[in-house]
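User: Could you go from structure to sequence for me? I need the amino acid at each position, not a summary. Structure tokens:
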């Protein structure tokens, strides 16, 4: 029978509402849901590709175990028992911390993230890793230091702002990151239509910049200098105002003193932006009726990531744009996630223990993934000898990926929860595949806490699950039940019997909603899971409203404007500038940055034929002037080298990138042997993370520094039959 199911595409943070027309077990069509309360009919090309995942012959439908060099299908009971026994065996031989866990980006897009937290507790290891330390930790750190909890995350009120400063972010492609904003291009157009202004600060004229009012081509790594210069102007010209936070902030004098050290002329030399332009940007931001500064991975994935996100928050605060309509606000989600996290995982913390080899600090019971390869390769007490990987591909998505690839070959046991044999899961002894996105139901409680509008939506399954199919929640919770031992194991088993399948987990969400801002105990709305399920297109809960005081977890509920660790970190900015000069003198005279495509999503949508059509997207983008100085031509195969490694890929010339900068997308590198996705292998590309250096990280958190990597670009040299070197033009 033909039917239509309304749900969301959960491939990225936007969670666009979709209409799925199905006939039995077959997807007929996927289109945007015009009545969805948040996305209003918008979808990107990835949503239609959900049908490709559903029918993909390379997708695993049953568990597999490795026999020799091949994978063989086995039943679920055997697979779960085998997986758990192997993990327990490693811990019995080498100690609790000998097993590491890694949770990838997709795990946050479903409620399985809470089951993953449970299995970590049961394992008891301190070696927990995730994609958080590749692209989020600096934002978590700034919120932790300023607001008392890492998930008190400001979100731009794009629906009402009159001035938006976008720093190192490309929401026209991502549709928001730590900002759930599907159809952001239309929202940007709306800002301009109501007389507002959108300014993009980025070394490349991105897709967002093309829709904006203005583009400022900052030097890679120049963002903190630019922000300090803007703060200097605001304080020097007495443009500061704290608005609703007046009398609720500590450290204003210290922040003013720091900014005084960075007049626009000094900042300009490091930011690559002229002093008059810095002054104008500051004045316009301070004078706007409402304004918001928003930064994401372009500034997060640098040595100054935490520092820069702190300065972004400071800019919003000292101009009176924090926690006010049109500024940086805090969504009121049906489940108060900060309280939920405190009850289930405890208070935020940082630096309670450190990584064995690198010495990098933990954050909220996770260690930075940049140090994972060393933990596997370095002998000694606590050496990692087993892994549990949940929906992640760290071989392609973490710094020094080729070294991690080599390290994983040495593991005694590895278990993966994944739908594919990837560059990472090919090292697994057992792979436990969940059903496809369209075959599972879910109730998202994470992204409403990051949404540009208050809302909640239910995600019903569009298709019946395959026979014997299990969703992420079932797989991970079943694994947790088998891994647990002793008193902890008995308690875990009792909890899992109580919760049972995911439908029972919804009772936990129901209870959390009861005590939430729209629940029966606090609101006439009386919101509960049943009401959310009945709302086919979601429930609109209105525009963002002030709520920082409700969320603050600092002592005395005061905003910390000048945390000591941030002020101390700012003192090292001159040292970083000296490091860049030294790298250039050593021959690494270009700065590497990333880029993202609307038709791609990290490493795991490259097996969709419809998304991989067209020109090669894995290219090194370079300004024509830089290419001319090196004697390079468009389409030529080039070698991009850093102190950590080198890759080869085609050159793409573009006026859209700042001179002195090269841009390469991440997520490629599918040419490794033993990988099970054939379309991806046909478009293998090169992994940019084979040239990123895992020893260069955000200096406070250890977050990976994928951007502002010193590199050089040169022609690939071919060898002629007589032994002479040739430029490999067109080779």
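Assistant: Here is the amino acid at each position, in order:
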């Amino acid at each position: 029978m033909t039917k239509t199911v309304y749900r969301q595409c959960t491939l990225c943070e936007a969670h666009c509402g979709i209409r799925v027309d199905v006939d039995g077990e077959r997807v007929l069509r996927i289109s945007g849901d015009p009545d969805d309360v948040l996305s209003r009919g918008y979808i990107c090309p990835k949503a239609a590709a959900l049908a490709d995942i559903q029918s993909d012959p390379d997708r695993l439908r049953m568990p597999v175990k490795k026999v020799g060099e091949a994978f063989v299908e086995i039943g679920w009971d055997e697979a779960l028992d085998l997986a758990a026994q192997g993990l327990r065996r490693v811990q019995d031989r080498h100690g609790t911390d000998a097993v590491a866990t890694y949770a990838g980006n997709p795990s946050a897009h479903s409620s399985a993230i809470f089951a993953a937290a449970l299995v970590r507790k049961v394992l008891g290891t301190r070696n927990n890793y995730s994609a958080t330390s590749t692209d989020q930790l600096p934002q978590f750190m700034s919120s932790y230091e300023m607001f008392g909890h890492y998930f008190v995350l400001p979100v731009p009120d794009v629906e009402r702002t009159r001035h938006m400063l976008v720093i190192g972010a490309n929401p026209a492609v991502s549709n928001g990151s730590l900002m759930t904003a599907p159809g952001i291009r239309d929202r940007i157009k709306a800002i301009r239509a109501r007389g507002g202004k959108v300014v993009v600060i980025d070394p490349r004229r991105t897709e967002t910049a093309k829709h904006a009012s203005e583009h400022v081509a900052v030097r890679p790594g120049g963002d903190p200098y630019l922000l300090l210069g803007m703060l200097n102007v605001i304080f020097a010209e007495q443009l500061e105002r704290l608005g609703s936070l007046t009398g609720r902030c500590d450290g204003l004098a210290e922040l003013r003193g720091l900014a005084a050290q960075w007049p626009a002329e000094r900042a300009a030399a490091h930011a690559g932006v002229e002093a008059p332009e810095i002054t104008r940007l500051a004045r316009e931001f301070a004078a706007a009726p409402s304004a918001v500064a928003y930064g994401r991975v372009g500034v997060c994935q640098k040595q100054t990531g935490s520092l820069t996100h702190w300065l972004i928050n400071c800019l919003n605060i000292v101009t009176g744009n924090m926690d006010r309509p049109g500024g940086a606000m805090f969504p009121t989600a049906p489940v108060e996630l900060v309280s939920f996290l405190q009850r289930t995982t405890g208070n935020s913390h940082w630096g309670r223990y450190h990584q064995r080899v690198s010495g990098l600090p933990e954050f909220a019971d996770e260690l930075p993934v940049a140090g994972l390869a060393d933990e596997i390769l370095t002998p000694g007490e606590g050496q990692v000898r087993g892994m549990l990987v949940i929906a992640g591909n760290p071989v392609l998505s973490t710094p020094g990926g080729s070294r991690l690839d080599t390290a994983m070959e040495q593991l005694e046991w590895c278990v993966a929860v994944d739908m594919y044999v990837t560059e990472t899961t090919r090292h697994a002894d057992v792979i436990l595949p969940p059903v496809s996105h369209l075959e599972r139901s879910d109730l998202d409680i994470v992204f409403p806490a990051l949404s540009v509008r208050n809302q909640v939506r239910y995600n019903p399954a569009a298709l019946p699950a395959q026979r014997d199919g299990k969703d992420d929640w079932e797989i991970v919770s079943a694994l947790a039940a088998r891994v647990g031992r002793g008193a902890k194991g008995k308690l875990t088993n009792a909890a899992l019997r109580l919760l049972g399948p995911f439908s029972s987990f919804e009772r936990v969400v129901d209870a959390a909603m009861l005590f939430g801002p729209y629940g029966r105990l606090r609101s006439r709305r009386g919101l509960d899971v049943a009401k959310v399920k009945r709302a086919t297109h979601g429930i609109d809960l209105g525009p963002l409203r002030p709520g920082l005081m409700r969320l603050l977890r600092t002592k005395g509920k005061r905003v910390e404007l000048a945390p000591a660790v941030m002020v101390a970190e700012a003192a090292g900015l001159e040292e970083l500038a000296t490091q860049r000069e030294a790298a250039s003198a050593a021959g690494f005279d270009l700065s590497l940055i990333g880029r993202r495509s609307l038709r791609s999503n990290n490493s795991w949508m490259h097996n969709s034929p419809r998304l991989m059509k067209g020109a090669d997207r894995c290219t090194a983008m370079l300004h024509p002037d830089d290419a001319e100085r090196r004697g390079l031509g468009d389409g030529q195969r080039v070698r991009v080298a850093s102190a950590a490694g080198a890759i080869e890929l085609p050159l793409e010339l573009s006026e859209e990138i700042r001179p002195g900068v090269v841009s390469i997308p991440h997520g490629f590198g599918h040419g490794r042997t033993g990988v099970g996705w054939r379309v991806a292998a046909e478009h293998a590309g090169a992994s940019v993370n084979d040239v990123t250096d895992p020893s260069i990280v955000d200096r406070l958190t250890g977050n990976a520094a994928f951007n502002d990597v010193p590199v050089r670009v040169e022609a690939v040299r071919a060898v002629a039959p007589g032994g002479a070197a040739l430029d490999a033009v067109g080779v």
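One structural detail worth keeping in mind: The longest strand covers residues 646-653.
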